[in-house]
C-alpha cells in the first residue's frame, strides 16, 4: 500500500492538510498520520453537521476520505469504548475496498491491534473501527455506534438504515456519512436530496467534470467502452441514468413519465389479490393488487425479515381489504423437515387460501412481468420500497469476463421482484398480459 497511486495522488494534489490531521491517541500522545486530503474533500472533513452525503465519481478517493473520518473519530474518542463502523453492501466488498486502507492509516498508532478475521482495529484509547456487510443487517441489531460510513447505500436494503443503523446511533448521538456513486433513482438519491434540503445535513457532489482528478485521455478511453448512460452515472454522478442491466428500467421509466406512479386509493367494491415471495430465513415480500377494468392497481406492498408466516397473516388481517386470491410460489408445496408441513398448508391453517403460481422459467416470468408493468398503476407512498426494488432489479455482473450473466443478481431487490413476477404469472387475467397496452404520450424525449 505504500505505493498506492490513489494515495500518492492525494498527497501530490493536496493543497492543505486537515485541521485535525494530528490525531490524539491518548491523553499524552499526539500521532500524525500520513494523510493529506485532496482539496475537493476538505469541505467534507471540516463540516459541522452530524449527517453527511458525498456523491462522487469512480476513483475520486471517497473511500480513503471516509476511512479517515472513522480513524479520526476513533482516535479522538474520549469515552473509552467508542465504536465506529464502515458498512458496505456485502462483507466481501468492504474487505476488498476498505480493509487495507484502514490497516494502513492506523498502523502508525502505537499499541494498535488488528483483528483480520473480524476486519477490526482496536485503538489504545479503547475505541474500535470495524467493517461490516449489510447483506445480513439484522445481525447488527443491538450494537451501538459513535460514527458510521455507509458505502454504496443504493445497493443495500433500505431498511438497514431505518431499522438498524439509525437506532444504533441514538444513545451516543453518533454521526453518519453516506458515500457512493449513483445507481439509478433509488434510496441513495433520497439521501442525497435530503442533504440538499435539510440544514442538519451536509451534501456534496463530485462529478469528474468538476474535480479534474482523472486525466482527459483516461476519460476519453472510458467513453469508448461505456454507454452514455453508464458514463453519466459512473463519472458525472447522474441519478437519472437508468440502472445498467436493470430488467424493468424502461417499464418503470414509462410508468413514472406516464403518471402511473401516483396516489392509487383502495376501491372497497373490488377484491384485493396478493402475491408472495416466501423467504426461508430471509425476506418475505407481498404485493397487493386490484384489477380495475384493463388496469392493474398496485395499492400496497409489505416486506419484512425474520418473521413467521403467522406474523404476515396478522398483518393481512389488520388491513381493511377484502381479499381474493393469494398467489404463492411453486416451492411453497415443499415440505419442511422440521414440521412435515408445506408452507402452503401452514398458510391455509392461518386462513390464507394460497394459490400456487404456475411453475415457470425465470426468464419467462420476467418477460411476463414486463408486459404486466404496462398496465400497472402504483401507489407511490404505500409501494415505495417495492417500486425502488423493481427499479434496482438487475442482471448479475461477471467482473472477470466484464459481461452480464444471464441470471438476476440476488440482493435486497430480489424478493420484491420475485413476488412481482408471481403476480404477473398468477393473476386471474394473466392471459391478457401478453398484449401490449399503449398509453397516451405525455412527455417528450
CATH architecture of the largest domain: 3-Layer(aba) Sandwich
Low-confidence stretches: 1-21, 432-445
Q: Determine the CATH topology of the largest domain.
A: Rossmann fold
- Going across the biggest sheet, name each strand in turn: 5-6-7-4-8-9-3-10
> Fraction of residues in helices?
25-40%
Q: What is the CA-based Rg, rounded?
A: 24 Å
Biggest sheet record: 8 strands, mixed
Tally of individual helices: 15
What's the number of extended β-strand segments? 19
* Gap between N and C termini: 47 Å
Strands, helices and their partners?
Elements: H1 5-13, E1 22-24, E2 30-32, H2 42-45, E3 51-56, H3 62-75, E4 83-88, H4 91-106, E5 113-115, E6 120-122, E7 128-133, E8 147-151, H5 159-168, E9 175-180, H6 187-197, E10 201-206, H7 208-211, H8 216-225, H9 228-234, H10 249-257, E11 261-262, E12 272-277, E13 283-292, E14 295-305, H11 309-318, E15 323-328, H12 343-349, E16 354-356, H13 362-373, E17 376-379, H14 384-392, E18 395-398, E19 403-408, H15 414-426
Parallel strand pairs: 3-9, 3-10, 4-7, 4-8, 8-9, 11-17, 12-15, 14-17, 15-16
Antiparallel strand pairs: 1-2, 5-6, 6-7, 12-13, 13-14, 18-19
Helix pairs in contact: 3-4, 13-15
Amino acid at each position: 500500500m505504500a505505493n498506492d497511486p490513489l494515495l500518492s495522488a492525494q498527497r501530490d494534489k493536496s493543497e492543505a492538510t486537515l485541521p485535525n490531521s494530528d490525531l490524539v491517541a491518548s491523553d499524552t500522545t499526539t500521532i500524525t498520520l500520513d494523510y493529506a486530503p485532496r482539496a475537493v474533500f476538505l469541505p467534507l472533513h471540516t463540516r459541522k453537521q452530524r449527517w453527511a452525503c458525498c456523491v462522487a465519481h469512480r476513483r475520486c478517493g471517497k473511500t480513503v476520505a471516509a476511512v479517515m473520518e472513522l480513524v479520526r473519530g476513533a482516535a479522538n474518542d474520549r469515552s473509552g469504548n467508542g465504536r465506529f463502523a464502515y458498512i458496505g453492501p456485502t462483507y466481501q466488498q468492504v474487505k476488498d475496498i476498505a480493509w487495507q486502507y484502514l490497516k494502513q492509516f492506523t498502523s502508525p498508532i502505537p499499541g494498535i491491534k488488528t483483528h483480520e478475521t473480524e476486519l477490526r482495529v482496536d485503538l489504545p484509547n479503547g475505541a474500535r473501527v470495524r467493517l461490516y456487510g449489510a447483506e445480513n443487517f439484522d445481525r447488527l441489531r443491538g450494537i451501538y455506534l459513535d460514527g458510521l460510513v455507509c458505502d454504496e447505500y443504493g445497493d443495500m436494503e433500505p431498511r438497514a438504515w431505518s431499522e438498524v443503523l439509525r437506532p444504533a446511533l441514538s444513545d451516543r448521538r453518533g454521526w453518519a456519512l453516506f458515500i457512493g456513486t449513483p445507481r439509478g433513482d433509488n434510496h441513495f438519491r433520497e439521501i442525497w436530496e435530503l442533504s440538499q434540503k435539510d440544514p442538519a445535513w451536509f451534501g456534496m457532489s463530485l462529478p469528474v467534470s468538476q474535480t479534474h482528478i482523472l486525466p482527459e485521455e483516461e476519460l476519453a478511453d472510458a467513453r469508448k467502452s461505456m454507454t452514455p448512460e453508464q458514463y453519466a452515472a459512473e463519472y458525472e454522478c447522474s441519478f437519472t441514468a437508468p440502472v445498467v442491466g436493470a430488467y424493468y428500467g424502461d417499464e418503470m421509466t414509462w410508468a413514472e413519465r406516464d403518471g402511473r406512479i401516483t396516489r392509487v386509493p383502495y376501491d372497497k367494491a373490488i377484491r384485493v389479490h396478493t402475491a408472495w415471495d416466501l423467504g426461508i430465513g430471509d425476506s418475505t415480500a407481498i404485493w397487493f393488487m386490484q384489477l380495475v377494468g384493463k388496469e392493474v392497481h398496485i395499492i400496497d406492498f409489505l416486506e419484512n425479515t425474520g418473521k413467521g408466516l403467522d406474523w404476515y397473516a396478522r398483518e393481512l388481517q389488520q388491513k381493511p381489504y377484502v381479499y381474493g386470491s393469494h398467489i404463492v410460489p411453486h416451492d411453497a408445496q415443499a415440505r419442511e423437515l422440521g414440521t412435515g408441513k408445506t408452507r402452503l398448508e401452514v398458510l391455509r391453517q392461518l386462513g390464507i387460501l394460497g394459490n400456487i403460481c404456475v411453475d415457470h422459467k425465470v426468464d419467462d416470468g420476467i418477460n411476463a412481468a414486463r408486459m404486466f408493468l404496462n398496465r400497472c398503476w402504483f401507489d407511490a407512498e404505500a409501494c415505495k420500497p417495492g417500486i425502488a426494488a423493481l427499479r434496482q432489479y438487475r442482471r448479475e455482473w461477471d467482473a472477470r469476463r466484464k459481461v452480464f450473466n444471464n441470471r438476476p443478481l440476488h440482493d435486497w431487490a430480489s424478493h420484491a421482484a420475485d413476488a412481482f413476477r408471481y403476480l404477473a404469472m398468477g393473476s386471474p387475467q394473466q392471459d391478457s398480459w401478453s398484449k401490449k397496452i399503449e398509453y397516451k404520450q405525455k412527455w417528450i424525449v
